[in-house]
Specification:
- The chain has 178 residues and is mostly helical.
- The protein has one domain (6-172): Hypothetical protein af1432.
- The chain has nine helices and two strands.
- It has helices at 6-11, 13-22, 24-41, 45-54, 70-76, 79-93, 98-109, 126-138, 152-177, and strands at 63-64, 67-68.
- Strands 1-2 form a two-stranded antiparallel ribbon.
- Helix 3 crosses helix 8 (126-138) and helix 4 crosses helix 7.
- The structure holds fe (ii) ion.
- Fe (ii) ion is lined by residues 26, 55-56, 135.
- Fe (ii) ion (FE2) binds at residues 26, 55-56, 135.
């Protein structure tokens, strides 16, 4: 089975609809961080990059009078739950392996505990922890990381490069296994 690429995922209309809200720049940057961390920690970099690219696709736009309303957001946010569902549906539609789709969906669900009444602390799997740390690395005060811009063609260029890095890594692994 051919690998579903990050570029396939990014170009899909579901991704295009929802990724704009939290920002393409943030999604692509976190995907790169997740790749690097996954390689360091022995986690599957394909799963890590896909989860990272999609981790914020559940965001609703909490605007009031043209500004992001943080109070409303904190009170009512469930973006990780919505994102987990959207990411799963999207990947299954693209023909992704169902186990991969489930793992990505869970990594999206658990990338933050800001919406939960408890902390997940050390309960995350290594994949889930990689995605959480990659997101945290790009975070800026007052959510400014969501406002950095990147146009669609630049995102596709960068994701294509990342796809090649992932495939090189996975092929190297296969070769090593003989
Ligand atoms: Fe994020």
């Amino acid at each position: 089975m051919n690998r579903v690429t990050l570029v396939d995922v990014f170009k899909h209309r579901i991704t295009q609809k929802y990724l704009q809200r939290s920002g393409i720049h943030h999604a692509v940057t976190v995907a790169y961080f997740a790749f690097e961390m996954a390689v360091e920690e022995g986690v599957d970099p394909d799963l890590a990059a896909k989860s990272a690219l999609l981790h914020d696709m559940g965001h609703y736009e909490w605007y009031r009078d043209g500004k992001w309303d943080y109070e409303e957001y904190r009170k009512h946010d469930i973006h990780a739950i919505k994102g987990a569902e959207r990411a799963h549906k999207l990947l299954v539609r693209l023909g992704e392996d169902r186990l991969t789709a489930k793992q990505v969906s869970l990594a999206v669900l658990l990338h933050t505990d800001s919406y939960l009444p408890f902390e997940l602390a050390n309960l995350r799997t290594p994949l889930q922890e990689v995605v959480r740390k990659a997101d945290e690395k790009d975070e800026q005060p007052l959510g400014m990381h969501h406002y950095k811009e990147m146009d669609k063609s630049e995102a596709i260029r960068q994701l294509h490069k990342l796809d090649q890095m992932i495939e090189d890594y996975l092929n190297k692994d296969k070769e090593a296994l003989g």
